[in-house]
Amino acid sequence: MKSININRKNKKNLRRVRFLKRIKRNGETKPRFIVSKSNANIFAQIFNDQDGTVIVAVNSIQLKKQANIAVAKEIGTLIAEKALKSGVDKVVFDRAGNKFHGQIKAVADAAREKGLIF
Asked: Strand order in 42-48's β-sheet?
């Protein structure tokens, strides 16, 4: 019997695949609000799966700041404002396999406060 090495990277991939299966099964037609991060930066974008296009994108590189909770809140506010201007108010939150805490949670909470529904 082959053993599976479950480390941090594999757990993240399993969470990502599990989420994408759930979206495809439910047949969601809303755009995805994707939030991902690296050690130094946070990236947020609203992506339309039907067209394969990015509607709105904001990241910490554009703001010329290092990733932290305050920058994450700023990114959530900016992306919500831009999305509402472009006519998108309901989205599906995709955390790209990351756990929902810290910077990811800060982006989501700030976007909800500005009026983005997910």
From this structure: 53-59, 42-48, 32-37, 92-94
